[in-house]
Design brief:
2 copies of one chain form a homodimer.
Chain A (H helix, E strand, L loop, with lengths): L3 E11 L7 H4 L5 E6 L9 H9 L3 E5 L8 H13 L4 E6 L1 H13 L8 H4 L12 E5 L11 E6 L4 E6 L7 E4 L9 H19 L7 H23 L4 H14 L13 H13 L3 H15 L5 H10 L8 H18 L13 H14 L13 H9 L3
Parallel strand pairs in A: 1-8, 2-3, 2-4, 4-5, 5-8
Antiparallel strand pairs in A: 6-7
Helix pairs in contact in A: 3-4, 6-7, 6-8, 6-10, 7-8, 9-10, 9-13, 10-12, 10-14, 11-12, 13-14
């Protein structure tokens, strides 16, 4: 096991009716910037619960944070927060709203160009960000319990991630009932995204980190068991609760400490979103099976373990078990309604493979993955396998 | 899944050489009370590393915190801290030193009788405790990452637990190498204690909490796999690291949220320590197999799951699998060198069974366990099975 530091300061309030805990978490004298997305929270009752919990606190609302939150949109929220002297940010929504809240919270006290925050991956944050609270309405990204955010800037075709220990939400509220009304497609994407978050931290090379490995396998198995259940029965409280709690643990830091990490599937997937507008989770489903095939030698030890412990594959040769595990992974995504081939999206694999490899090479991403051995040539190979 | 709040604010520095992180964690101007046990840290190099990391900080040392830390001893440390105006407590040792540090940190600013802190299970804490840091040298209790402490007061034959959210250590340092020199008996006790911590939160009735269940099973499997390895090869870094990290997760709150909990094994075990001076972990090994037998109907669902997922028992009838799982549990403790029968300790089961039931009844503990159905009669039955 490698040395590590683990710290997750977010307080989670989980369950039915927990939105009322906002009234204990945010001081009565706070000036709150409420950040939200497109307005669905006004239809499903979340907004009313939030307003009731906020009570007489001075609150200013900013609706309109889009999927893949845009820097320019968020700067309007920053201007509002500065004008109204907001001293708390309350994010109500999914991962995009939560990620956006992290940028807003850091940008409000930031002197100079706030784009430097994502441009330096968080290094430019020097003034303490505003405290953040969150009401999560879409399980997927883990943003409710980590210090990560991904910010897009459409005006200059950029999409950058940043991290800072001071942008973990102070508290996050996870009420499964608030997610019952989500469209099936978004729930499926959330399951697929969380699954890949675990894989990126787990499917590398053995590092003698038994708790991290078994926790990762636990989360994968819960997603495999509960994902189809919650898609089939969106109002099954327990299935949805298990999905939400699994998605939080998929990216709250616990399984990633002391072990190598990959993230090449995300890096390649981001390009497919940028080039073709494919949903983030769907890009991961396209890339992952091919990446497992191309990296089968460097990932062999973990692939065998994954086959046995996650998919209960114990028969046949090592290579047969690995092949079966890769096909099980693809079949799992397909079972969620997430197509795994570029042709499913009417995309020509050969052209896209070349273009993605070129774009990543141009920005210096020529040696990705846990061993830095995923070169542009391998990226092409991976995407050709997804034809 | 039941509603819950989860929050664990402790920052963990894990690995070789991490003691130096003290210099980043405790402010340079702090006045530190260093709390320790019997002096083994001066033999194994831990003390020297701690002193080097503390550098020029004003430090006062209090050695002599005993196993099952005693209130009267700790009050001497409180007097020292008050006299020297300490504003940080640094615990260097195992669970007893860490538990003691929590009482000291809460007692220093407490007005009135500090015994009220354990006597009210923490409710009497109103003044913010001093911040606590910890260097853990014995994996077992999980005290390095929770807000729990158990305090004895030999003068009045009491032993009481308290909890408070403000006595979680701010940081804890877990360096596996500092534990290599531990006596085998203490390491075995640590494994056995951590195992029972998991069981008390897991082996109840099904609550549709899949992450919590699978994480619990993960920790049990790691203890089963790594425990014997680290006893056989105390200098095997990875085996010891995995044990330590497993013991932390066994009682840091993660597996206990949203589920019923038992703790009857601990309640009964404490009496065996009080009456016969048996090591805490050994009392658990005596009580647990009998408790599983007596409670087999109310715990049936989870016993079957435990048999399958932890012990890979899939053959035979449900009752045969349950029996095999209970015997596997007993055999596991025995394999650690922890004897599981009262006769191994030269104790007459019939007399002790009556006496323990009487003592617990006298203090109102007449309906313990996750369903409150462990009565004095059942306690007798449990202990007679350990004859």
């Amino acid at each position: 096991m490698e040395n590590f530091t683990y710290h997750n300061p977010t307080r989670i309030h989980f369950g039915r009716g927990q939105i009322e805990k906002i009234s204990c978490e945010i001081p009565a004298g706070a000036r709150v910037l409420l950040l939200a997305g497109g307005g669905s929270i006004k239809k499903n009752g979340v907004y009313d619960q939030v307003k009731k919990a906020l009570g007489a606190r001075v609150t200013h609302e900013f609706f309109g944070v889009e999927a893949n939150p845009d820097f320019d949109t968020l700067m309007q929220a920053v201007a509002l927060a500065r004008r109204e002297k907001s001293d708390w940010v309350l994010a109500v929504g999914g991962g995009s709203v939560l990620d956006g809240a992290k940028l807003v919270a850091a940008a409000v006290p930031h002197e100079g160009d706030a784009w430097q925050i994502p441009a330096t991956h968080g290094g430019a944050i020097t003034a303490p960000p505003l405290p953040i609270g969150a009401v999560l309405t879409l399980p997927a990204t883990g943003s409710e319990a980590n210090g990560n955010a991904v910010i897009s800037r459409r005006a200059i075709k950029e999409k950058l991630a940043f991290y800072h220990p001071l942008v973990y939400p102070r508290f996050s509220i996870l009420d499964p009932e608030t997610t019952f009304s989500l469209p099936e497609r978004q729930v499926a994407n959330g399951i697929g995204d969380a699954f890949c978050h675990v894989i990126e931290q787990y499917l590398t090379f053995p590092a003698a980190a038994e708790i991290q490995d078994r926790f990762a396998e636990s989360i994968l198995k819960v997603l495999i068991d509960e994902g189809p259940k919650t898609l089939a029965s969106p109002h099954d409280y327990d299935a949805r609760a298990n999905l939400i709690w699994a998605a939080t643990w998929a990216l709250n830091g616990a399984i990633g400490v002391g072990v190598p990490q990959d993230w090449a599937t995300h890096t390649i997937g981001h390009e497919l979103t940028a080039l073709h507008g494919i949903d983030h989770a769907r890009t991961l489903a396209i890339v992952l099976p091919g990446l497992m095939r191309v990296q089968r030698e460097t990932k062999r030890g973990k692939l065998v373990q994954y086959a046995a412990r996650v998919w209960d594959l114990h028969e046949g040769s090592e290579d047969e078990r690995i092949d079966a595990a890769i096909e099980s992974t693809r079949a799992f995504y397909e079972s969620l309604g997430i197509r795994t081939r570029l042709s499913d999206y009417k995309i020509k694999a050969d052209e896209t493979a070349v273009e993605v490899a070129r774009r990543l090479a141009a920005r210096g991403e020529t040696a990705i993955g846990e061993r830095g051995d995923i070169t542009p040539a391998r990226i092409e190979e991976i995407l050709l396998l997804a034809a």
